Amino acid sequence: MAEADAEDAGDEMTLPTEEEVDEIDKLAKAVKLAKKMNLSLKGLKGLNDIKHRLKLHLLEKAGKSRRPGEVINMVTAMRSRDEERRKHLLGLLQEVEKRAAGLLMMKQELNDQLADQLERNVPNFMAKFLLHKERMTSRKCPILVAGETSAGKSSLINLLLDEEVLPTSHLSNTYTICEIRYGEVRTIKLHRRDGTCEDRVLQEDDSLVDLLKKYVEEKGDRDQPTDYPRVEILLPREFLKDIYIVDSPGIGEKEDITRQVKEYLTEAFAFIYVIKSDNAGGVQTDRLQALLKEVATMKTSGAEDIPAFSVKTAIFVCNKWDQVPIAERKLVREDTVKKLQACWSGSSARQVFCMSTAEAQRLRDQGHVSADFSRFLDGLERLIPESLNWRIEVSYRWLDYFLSRTIYHLRAYVQQGDQSRDERKAKFELVKSRLHALRDQADDVMKMLRENVDSSADIAVKSLQEHLTSDNVKRTVTTWTEADLPAVEGTLSIMMKKIKAAISKRIQGVLSDWEKDQAFFSRQREVLVELFASAFRTKIERKLLDIEGAIDGTAVVPAEPAADSGLEDEEQATGQERSKLPQLFAEPTLKLNTVGKVTLGVTSPVWLPIGVVAAFFGLSVYGIVELKRIVERSRDEKEVDTYKQDKYGYLSRMALKELEQFVRGSELREYVRSQLKPAYYCLEQLQEVVPKQIQLDLDLVKDLNEDARDEKVYSIYYHPLLQVMDNFHRRLKAFWVEELWAPDIDPQTLDYATRDVYEGPVCSGLRAELKRGEMRPQQAGAAGGKPASVTIKVFGGKVTHRNVTEFLQEEDIFRKVKKHENLIHLSGFSRISSLPCLVFTPVVTDLRTRISDVHQSALMKNAYAPYDVLLGTMTEVVNGLEYLHSKGLVHLDLSLSTVAVDCNDIVKLTNIGKPRAASLPHPGSFGTTEAGGYIYLAPEVLKGQDYVTESDMYAVGLMMWEICYPGTAYLDEDKNIKTFSELKDFVCNKRRPRAPEDPCEGGAYIREPRDYNKWTAVMACCWAHQPESRLTAGDWKEHINRTGGDSLRLSFHEEHFHAVGT
Predict the structure, then answer these.
(1) What is the pLDDT of residue 505?
(2) CATH code for the domain in which residue 352 is found
(3) How many CB atoms are closer than 10 A to CB 219?
(4) Distances 361 to 212, 357, 370 between C-alpha atoms, Å
(5) Where does the record place the region Disordered (predicted)?
(6) Which of 223, 726, 826, 850 has CA atoms 20 to 30 A from the CA of 784?
(7) How far apart are CA 813 and CA 913, in angstroms?
(8) Are 619 and 639 contained in the same domain?
(9) Are residues 838 and 852 part of one domain?
(10) 8 Å CB contact between 261 and 146
(11) Phi, psi angles (nearest 5°) of residue 176
């Protein structure tokens, strides 16, 4: 009975977490907790054994969902989905390729220049189709595990495999790469240096680990080449049919090893870098830098400017975490993250996982998964899809660019059919002059950028000269301990190599410490990227886009070359679609402000900067100091005896000489230039590509001007092809949204609000609904935080090629427009119930409900709503519209039901778009589609014309009517308007809702005659039949605030008060 009571007490007590158990550092505390939990301590030895027993008990109680070996199923499922997406994109590549081949046939049959123009814009495009198709069909899919010597890479792989495959002794492995692949029988394939291969088939009782030890463990001089540079381990495991695992030796030590790792990375399914956490000083940044310098400059085959690997998809494992003192763990983790971010810019804390493979192995043997290994698996589940996305995005981006340029050229030719010969010539002369002017300005921009980079280099050299000649630095360089002294062994060359390495490491440490304290290069990098982005976008890219818009007819040709708009980046929401949609490869570190994404010409005519800027951010902050002159100068064998006699003095003198030579000679400037190398590289690329693109556009307008073919050629051949290519492009963008677009907001943290009594949408319109939502904190360890209220915008149905441009455009513009008081503010993109959605700041209701509440509250007091309240509300709507219209934007689908109100009673517009045709019913269903949400569309929009700023003002007139009178415009007044067809006939015959002169007659809520007359007069001017007769937003504010008598009504369009067939 006593034992049962104790067990019951153990069940009822509040159990600690694994992390809390892990932090126990006193044996007595562990014993007390074990007894309290009624655990037997028999056979346990010491604190670590008791803590392990406690963790095991907690796992058994919790019934963890993850089980050993689960990672295999997880990775296999990811690979399966990846195959489906590759197949989808492959199909698009094949379809577009056929049309591209048709362009070559047009060249032969019609003497057409289009294929040649595309070839100059997208060199070797037919060959590139083959390359990208191969990428989509490639079965290569390695999980690459690399890291520091003795960090526990093999132990981690064994955990992933849920099987002891690789030896995990403390002896260092040789420079052997181990690949674990599928095979029908257990086999080891030993690849020799001479290219031959030896197969060793394992018998049932053979130990794979023992056999591998003979070939992969170090047996002699580590500098000597290994007999077996590569070993394949074949296992009959189903999941290995889809992927294979690569265990890489130390990175950066040998060129051939680094080269092979690079080859794996271009195809990597995932990249895991293991850090030896019990090292003094933590992560070995020099080793990581060596890999980074290779990775950052890698380019994907067939896509010259696209980085082959995304830094943000790497996974860093701080192993042997149990050997880090508990009191130091927080600082060690923070220091590790800081160092990783310093030498691998773009990485973040979410990619770092602390664990003990030894502890995880012990728990696995007993059928459980440790908490830290479970978190690591969570990270794999989150980060591997990002890695897969990157690989597909490489091919997606190329196809997006090809289609963008093809559509641009096709539009330019279609334009030819709509212009006379004289109009073509006039446009040619104007565009040519603008391109020449841009070329001159681009030269000035490049000169300015180079001067800034050179100035940064000069400042850095001067600052470092002062620092390196200081007494403190001299003491640091000349002070050595016994542990620092290179051992006297081997030849003179070997000894001098070790001395060189020791001194180089010491000077490198001084430079690294200076950068950590001053953050000079990191700050300069931010400043230069900001400068590059601003100069490129505002002075080159936007102007080139404007000119191309004039060439292909998507923009009006100005009378004079356009001057700088002077608008901030976030306000530039009217750029050409081909440049701004979609935004790809926007690494978190590429953000130049806290709100907007930055993409430097992702699919713009200058197809360069993202590849360049990604390299800019990816390269290490710190360079590697090379002191080759030591070996070159020290050839005398007596140097060895000199060193033996006075090691400390010899090393101090040598180090001081090298430091002085480093400061006085060219090495310091070379070092500084290496830190700014990405900036110089970016400059070189811009200087090559910008003039080239300007010349390509000059060649295009010249060809267009000289094209004397009949206009029927353009309508017969180019227009249908344009429609086909545009359809391909829309399908590609829909694929991007559905499959590749990584949410800003983790979908796991987002849900619809359930605490509200009213669960319907906050706002509802033709295109989308706004619903109340909740967003849980995304930060690690914040699971218990209070959810934040948000508004979730979901679009009607799935995003398809028919509506994808509209969706992407709205998201893009919401990011760029400034935070106007009367616009709802975007928090980010996410998915809910697998559907794409936009997440906004919270609102509480729609304007229809709020106005109804105002009227009902007044009527309960036998009064009418104060006019200034109604006027103030409507003025806020118009203020928001005025801002949008000033940017060339429209609201689209504007009504009392699509405008929101926040908790402070501030009106928020919820839609943004560019003028375009509205989504109307199919003509065959006009007679059966309910009028419903279409009642706010202007007559010209109902006829199929574009929705423009004047269309918004028409809707303003109807909103004013619904604020002034009870009911819904048209529907509640005339029972004969039920279908879209009936609505269209009514409105297009210049009929409007009834607005009698006497407010009492129509039951108006505005009863004071002067206010009523002014309100209805302005209302009528908004819904005028001809768009040019309607008030602008600015006019609305001017007229609604005029003071005057009752005669004011007669100064407006009186005829628009007649309605309802009187």
Answers:
(1) 81
(2) 3.40.50.300
(3) 12
(4) 20, 6, 9
(5) 1-20
(6) 826
(7) 7
(8) yes
(9) yes
(10) yes
(11) -110, 130
> SS3 helix, strand, coil % of the chain, rounded to 5?
55, 10, 35
Q: How far apart are CA 597 and CA 600, in angstroms?
A: 10
- Distance from C-alpha of 173 to C-alpha of 153, rounded to nearest angstrom: 11
Contact of 337 with 375, CB cutoff 8 Å: no
User: 341: which 2 tokens?
Assistant: 């971010």
CA 294, 296, 298 angle in degrees (round to 5)? 70
DSSP for residue 1028:
G
| Residue 199 backbone zone (phi > 0: left; psi -120 to 50: alpha; other: beta) | beta
The stretch 712-722 carries a mean pLDDT of 86
Q: Is 381 exposed, middle or buried (0-12, 13-18, 19+ CB in 10 A)?
A: middle
Q: Do residues 45 and 85 share a domain? A: no
Pair of tokens at residue 100: 């591209």
Left, alpha or beta for 149 (phi > 0: left; psi -120 to 50: alpha)? beta
- State how far the Cα of 1042 lies from the Cα of 1054, in Å rounded to an integer: 18
CATH number at residue 944: 1.10.510.10
DSSP assignment, residue 739?
A: I
Tokens describing residue 907 = 């009106």
Do 986 and 1036 have their domain in common?
A: yes
What spatial distance separates the first Cα and last Cα of the chain, rounded to whole Å? 94
* Residue 1048 within a domain: no
In the beta sheet, which residues pair with residue 244? Answer: 142
Identify which of 181, 294, 282, 289 has the alpha carbon closest to the alpha carbon of residue 240.
181
Domain presence at residue 562: no
- Percent of the chain clearing pLDDT 70 (strictly above): 79
State which of 340-344, 639-643, 742-746 shows the largest mean pLDDT.
742-746
Number of H helices, E strands in the chain: 36, 22
- DSSP character string of 488-526: --S-HHHHHHHHHHHHHHHHHHHHHHHHHHH-HHHHHHH
Place of tokens 């440490």: 509
- 3 state DSSP class of 890: strand
- Condensed to tens digits (0 to 9), the pLDDT of residues 255-304 reads 666 667 777 776 777 788 888 887 655 666 666 666 665 665 555 554 45
What are the tokens at 517?
Answer: 């304290």
What does the pLDDT average to over 480-489?
Answer: 77
Q: Return d(Cα 380, Cα 373) in angstroms, integer.
A: 10
Contact by Cβ (8 Å): 1022, 1031: yes
* Cα 50 → chain centroid: 45
Q: Is the peptide bond before 582 cis (omega within 30 degrees of 0)?
A: yes
Count the Cβ atoms, other than its own, within 10 Å of residue 363.
21
Greatest pairwise CA separation for the chain in angstroms: 117
Length of the chain: 1062
Residue carrying structure tokens 């109804």: 852
Residue 187 has which token pair? 């086999």
Q: Which segments of 320-414 are extended strands (E)?
A: 352-354
**The two structure tokens encoding residue 40:** 């037997």
